[in-house]
Specification:
The protein is α+β, with helices and mostly antiparallel strands. It is 47% helix and 16% strand. It has nine helices and eight strands. The strands form two sheets. Strands 1-8-7-6-4-3 form a six-stranded antiparallel sheet, with helices on one face. The longest helix is centred in the C-terminal third of the chain and has 43 residues.
Length: 294
C-alpha cells in the first residue's frame, strides 16, 4: 500500500505495511553508497512529497480534489524508534479545506549489512485524523436520520475503527428510532404512484410495532418499483440484517453487516427522495397537459 492509498482508506489504529513512502533522492543516495561498499546511515528519512486525491467537503468543491502538503508538516521519519508525525494538506482547488493526519511510523531497525532503501516496507498507523475518517455521508441520508445524527456518527466512528458489534448495534438502534419516518416516506411514494392502498394500510399499522424488525414482519405487499435497490426491496434487506442479531457473530462479521446495512440505508434514502421528486413532476406535468385540453 502506498501513502496516498493509506491516507484514503486506512481506518484509525489499524497498522498497515506501506511502501513507496520515502524520498527517492535520499534512497538513491543510500543505494549509491552501498554500491561503493559503504553502509549508509538509515536512522531517519524524509517522506516523499505527494499530492493525494482526497474528498473536499467545502461547498466550492464537494468532490475529490488534489491536496498539497503544508510546509509545517513533519516529514522526517525516525526509524530507530516509533516516529509520530503530523501531515497537513490543503485543497489545491478551494484553498480552504485543511486535512490533518497524525501518523505513527513503527520503528524499523535494519539488520547488519542492511539499509532502508526502495524495497523497504514500513508499518504505518493512523492515530488521529481531522476531519474524522470516512467517506462523506450523503445529505439525503442525514436528512432521513434526522435527530439521531449523533447516534449515527457514533456508529460510523465505530465502523471506521473496526468495532463491528458496536457499529451494528448503533445502526440497528437508528432503524428502530426512525422506522416511522422511513414508513411515512414510503407511504408518500406509494400514494403518489397509486395502486398501493394495501401497502399503505400495512405501513400505517406497522408503525405500532416497537422495533424495525417486528414492523417489517407484518408487511406482506411489495413496495413501489421505484424504491428497489438493484431490483431488491431495501426494507427486506435491512430486515434480514437486523433480524440476524448479534448472537453467534464475530466482530468481523458484525462489521460486514454494519457496513452493508449503512450502504443500503444510504441508497434507500436516495431512492426515496428521487422517487418523490419524479412522481411529483409526472403528476404536475399530467395535470398541466390535462387542463390544456379542456
Amino acid at each position: 500500500m502506498d501513502l496516498e492509498t493509506f491516507l484514503n482508506e486506512a481506518p484509525l489504529y489499524t497498522p498497515q505495511l506501506c511502501s513507496d513512502l520515502l524520498d527517492n533522492y535520499r534512497l538513491g543516495e543510500r543505494k549509491r553508497s552501498a554500491n561503493k561498499g559503504y553502509l549508509p546511515d538509515s536512522t531517519s528519512t524524509e517522506l516523499k512529497t505527494i499530492r493525494p486525491l482526497l474528498y473536499c467537503s467545502n461547498d466550492a468543491c464537494k468532490s475529490p480534489r488534489y491536496f498539497e502538503l503544508i510546509d509545517d508538516s513533519e516529514t522526517i521519519v525516525v526509524h530507530t524508534l516509533d516516529s509520530f508525525n503530523r501531515l497537513s494538506f490543503c485543497c489545491s482547488n478551494c484553498k480552504l479545506e485543511i486535512k490533518h493526519f497524525f501518523l505513527k511510523f513503527h520503528s524499523y531497525v535494519p539488520s547488519k549489512n542492511e539499509y532502508i532503501g526502495f524495497e523497504t516496507a514500513i508499518t504505518v498507523e493512523k492515530v488521529g485524523e481531522m476531519p474524522r475518517f470516512g467517506k462523506p455521508i450523503p445529505k439525503k441520508a442525514l436528512d432521513l436520520i434526522g435527530g439521531e445524527r449523533q447516534l449515527f456518527f457514533k456508529g460510523h466512528q465505530c465502523e471506521n475503527q473496526g468495532f463491528g458489534i458496536a457499529a451494528f448495534a448503533y445502526y440497528r438502534r437508528i432503524l428502530d428510532a426512525k422506522k416511522d419516518k422511513i414508513f411515512d416516506k414510503v407511504i408518500k411514494v406509494a400514494q403518489l404512484t397509486g395502486g398501493y392502498d394495501q401497502l399503505v394500510n400495512e405501513l400505517q399499522d406497522a408503525k405500532a410495532q416497537p422495533r424495525f424488525a417486528d414492523a417489517i414482519r407484518t408487511i406482506k405487499h411489495a413496495i413501489p418499483e421505484s424504491l428497489l435497490v438493484n431490483g431488491k426491496n431495501p426494507l427486506t434487506l435491512m430486515y434480514r440484517a437486523v433480524s440476524e442479531g448479534l448472537h453467534n457473530k464475530t466482530d468481523e462479521q458484525c462489521l460486514q453487516y454494519a457496513t452493508a446495512l449503512k450502504t443500503v440505508l444510504f441508497q434507500f434514502s436516495e431512492k426515496l427522495e428521487s422517487a418523490m421528486k419524479e412522481d411529483r413532476e409526472i403528476k404536475d406535468a399530467l395535470k398541466l397537459l390535462e387542463s390544456a385540453t379542456n
